[in-house]
Amino acid sequence: MARKVPLKNVRNIGIMAHIDAGKTTVSERILYYTGRSHKLGEVHDGAATMDWMEQEQERGITITSAATTCMWKDHMISLIDTPGHVDFTMEVERALRVLDGAIALYCAVGGVQPQSETVWHQSERYEVPKIAFVNKMDRIGADYFGVVEGIQNMLGANAVPVVIPIGASEDFVGVIDLIRMKALYFNEDAKGMEWDEKDIPADLLESAKEWRNNLVEKCAEQDEAMMEKFFEEGDLSEDEIWTILRKATCAREVVPVFCGSAFKNKGVQQLLDGVIKILPAPNEIPPIICTKNPDNQRKVDDNEVFSALSFKIMSDKHMGKLTYLRVYSGTLEAGSTIWNSTQQKKQRIGRLLRMHSNRQEAIDAAVAGDIVAVAGLDATKTGDTLCTQDNEIHLEAMEFPAPVISIS
Ligand code: GDP
């Protein structure tokens, strides 16, 4: 079966981080929460849910795949592995080419470290919209606003807090959601995704108002009508703020900042909401242009002629060689024969797999926007283009224009 989720609900993202900032922990929490919420949606028998959770906890969730797909609130998120080490610069570049948005992850104590600068600039070259997550807020010396300033000063980005922390270090208990103007107190329990929602404490109210104004103003700058409304009425609605935040982020005019402690199960849930509400869907990027013939363009659309880019090859102990593809346009069917335009060779597609954290799902077809693994692609190398022989395209060194989001 091909993908059931509409293209507008697909997010292909990566996490860019300096080593040790907590990429593995954040990824594991994402997979844990998404696995659990998806399971909870499907399974109505409480006992079955418990069994699944215990199994997961015993085994521990490991992310060994180059791309892991998960579900969060009707959205399909593919988490594409973006290596954090400077030695893997080429690999980082390849991963950045196939994702539509990224989470830039920072340690609340370490801040913007040299490695984060390198990856940041690479991602800017590929025009990848980003949201930031300041992790390890529970550590002694955690300095959220210091990291926000670091993103501004060292990376030249217009970092705008979407949340502000309540407390720091061992007193870090929650965040103020500046869009909803509510205080959220997280449940530290590893099984819990819940939080208590309360009014903002009186001593933080003034600063919360100032930060909310800052957020609205910086986003509204990107939209004349909203700016006018903001000046006339003094504020915007929750929906309006999400809309302009998304528009400004996708245009790479702002970088929304969230915070938490992955280790203590705080804040990653808000980050996931941020991913689906702010980062672009695959069809929000302009048509992909052939690197050898600019007139040959493909829209990210199932009805276009097939094209895909191979971005990683891994060896799987059961499946053998697995080639990870990003499908840009059209449909790729299991068992079909396609054309590798880089190698000028026909290639037979074996099994098509969607990789989840705890299983591989065999699928009949992959469609535009999908990230899938293919078994049996003998001649295809990393960076090759796959397409149809009679309508050849080359995506090898393609340029990635910034996404265009319409606001209406
Ligand atoms: P990676 O190198 O970026 O993948 O980082 P890891 O996820 O492996 O984390 C590095 C270390 O930081 C590990 O010892 C984690 O347990 C720890 N860590 C990750 N997140 C947090 C956090 O939110 N708070 C604290 N105190 N430690 C964390």
From TrEMBL:
Location within or outside the cell: Cytoplasm
Entry's transmembrane regions: none
Primary subcellular site in the record, as a coarse category: cytoplasm
Keywords: Cytoplasm, Elongation factor, GTP-binding, Nucleotide-binding, Protein biosynthesis
Binding residue positions for GTP: 17-24, 81-85, 135-138
GO cellular component: cytoplasm
Role according to the record: Catalyzes the GTP-dependent ribosomal translocation step during translation elongation. During this step, the ribosome changes from the pre-translocational (PRE) to the post-translocational (POST) state as the newly formed A-site-bound peptidyl-tRNA and P-site-bound deacylated tRNA move to the P and E sites, respectively. Catalyzes the coordinated movement of the two tRNA molecules, the mRNA and conformational changes in the ribosome.
Protein name (database record): Elongation factor G
Originating species: Tichowtungia aerotolerans
Record gene name: fusA
